[in-house]
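Is this the right way to post structure tokens for a design question? Let me know if I should format differently. Anyway, here goes:
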């Protein structure tokens, strides 16, 4: 095992401290020893210490205090306590407060080494997992949102910029494109993350109840209002209110919502008093609000308030290379969830999923993979596992990815190669053939665009 750890030993019995340090140095660890708690704290405060081994009972600053400060400064650091028989109980309390374990005096060298090895190994594992997670996230997404297409990278960039603000955001996209997922990512990556995230779906609530859901009501405000009740705005105070299916909100409620946005105050139904609130609004719709405004179904002034920042989530058929990545991520996720040992998907099967148009977008793909995992019998998902309607419709002509005007030709070439490679199930020979270029040219381009 790798014995790269900085260990600090704090013990007022000099011989014991030296003996511990010596036996750990002999197997490769870096050790520092000090004879009292305050010297120990000085080092903990200024250096990076991976493991602290401290005597529990010491004059002035004792092991408990060392434990507390160490964990405050860096929760990842491990603390091992040394204790006599008389104080085992205190050591157990210390473990509840975050100590890794304790060692009984007199110290047994073999046991000491085993305990330190175990603690360091665990620490390395935790660190490498955090690191791995961070890398995956940097490479493929943002806060659990998976995507590697150019369109999604653009969205991740906007998300990073807007999460820290409190600006109103409008999310537009077809059903299943991830509107709710993005709304919660905006909340949980921003400064309001420790306050509530509250969602309300305008389409799911009758017109008569919607206002009371939003603003709350007083006892007796209407027939059936037996108690006073807080509305979603009040619950979301200092946090974020997610207004889903905003295009389905009736005009009368839109008027009141506009007033709340402008005044920063709400009035419960049946009350005369207004209450000050501080709520960030994130709204979503799968409709074209601009069209609804033209048709007189949505208020233009409210549309302008929402449209400060607009995120358009592209349908899956316009970012086909994400089908590739999402399929792999979902296979992993559901294989684990259903305790199956499915390792991947055959190239033929992947091709069919790629050619399908996914009208239900990511939700549909996710459900499809889950059902394939559940029925899959082999190590790799194959054609027989594909739901019938997807198999039958996979030859639908696809509109293909959308290239915005002004996109550099290099970028376009990269996208085309990426998509074709995905279409060919990763087979480079076939990709070259479809693109009408030699394999060597393809290799060079893969290298150039970092697609290898
Ligand atoms: N980029 C993504 N990466 C991973 N999972 C995603 C992604 N986008 C969506 N999903 C998953 O797909 C499912 C549907 O997403 P979500 O509910 O956010 O869609 P929606 O746009 O709100 O749909 P609807 O309009 O039908 O309400 C969820 O399970 C969500 O976790
Ligand atoms: Mg939704």
């Amino acid at each position: 095992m790798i014995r790269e750890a900085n260990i600090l030993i704090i013990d007022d019995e000099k011989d014991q401290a030296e003996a511990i340090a010596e036996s750990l140095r002999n197997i490769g660890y870096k050790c520092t020893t000090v004879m009292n708690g305050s010297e120990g704290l000085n080092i903990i405060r200024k250096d990076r210490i991976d493991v602290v081994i401290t005597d529990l009972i010491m004059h002035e600053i004792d092991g408990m205090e060392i434990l507390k400060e160490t964990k405050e400064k860096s929760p990842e650091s491990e603390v091992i306590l040394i204790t006599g028989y008389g104080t085992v109980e205190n050591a157990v309390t210390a473990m509840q407060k975050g100590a890794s374990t304790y060692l009984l005096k007199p110290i047994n060298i073999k046991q000491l080494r085993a305990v330190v090895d175990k603690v360091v190994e665990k620490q390395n594992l935790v660190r490498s997992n955090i690191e791995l997670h961070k890398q995956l996230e940097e490479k493929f997404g943002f806060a659990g949102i998976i995507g590697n297409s150019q369109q999604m990278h653009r969205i991740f960039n906007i998300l990073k910029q807007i999460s820290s603000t409190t600006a109103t955001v409008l999310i537009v996209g077809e059903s299943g494109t991830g509107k709710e997922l993005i709304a919660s990512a905006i909340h949980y990556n921003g400064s309001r993350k420790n306050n509530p995230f509250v969602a309300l779906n305008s389409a799911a609530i009758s017109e008569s109840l919607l206002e009371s859901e939003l603003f709350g009501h007083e006892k007796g405000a209407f027939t059936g209002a037996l108690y006073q009740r807080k509305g979603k705005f009040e619950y979301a105070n200092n946090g974020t209110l997610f207004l889903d299916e905003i295009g389905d909100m009736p005009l009368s409620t839109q008027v009141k919502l506009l007033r709340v946005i402008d005044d920063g105050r709400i009035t419960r139904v049946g009350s005369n008093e207004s209450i000050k609130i501080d709520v960030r609004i994130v709204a979503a719709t799968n409709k074209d609000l601009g069209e609804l405004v033209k048709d007189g179904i949505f208020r233009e002034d409210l549309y302008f308030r929402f449209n400060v920042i607009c995120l358009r989530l592209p349908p899956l058929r316009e970012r086909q290379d994400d089908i590739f990545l999402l399929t792999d991520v979902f296979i992993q996720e559901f294989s684990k969830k259903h305790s199956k040992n499915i390792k991947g998907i055959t190239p033929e099967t992947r091709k069919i999923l790629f050619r399908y148009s996914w009208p239900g977008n990511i939700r549909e793909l996710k459900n499809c993979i889950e059902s394939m995992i559940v029925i899959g019998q082999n190590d790799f998902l194959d054609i027989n596992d594909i739901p019938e309607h997807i198999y039958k419709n996979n030859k639908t002509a696809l509109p293909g990815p959308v290239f915005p005007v002004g996109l550099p030709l290099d970028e376009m070439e990269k996208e085309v190669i990426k998509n074709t490679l995905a279409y060919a199930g990763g087979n480079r020979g076939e990709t070259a053939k479809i693109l009408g270029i030699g394999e060597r040219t393809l290799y060079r381009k893969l290298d150039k665009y970092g697609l290898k």
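Format looks fine. Someone answered above. Worth noting: Residues 316-392 form a domain with the Helicase, Ruva Protein; domain 3 fold (CATH 1.10.8.60). Residues 11 and 17 are 6 Å apart (CA to CA).
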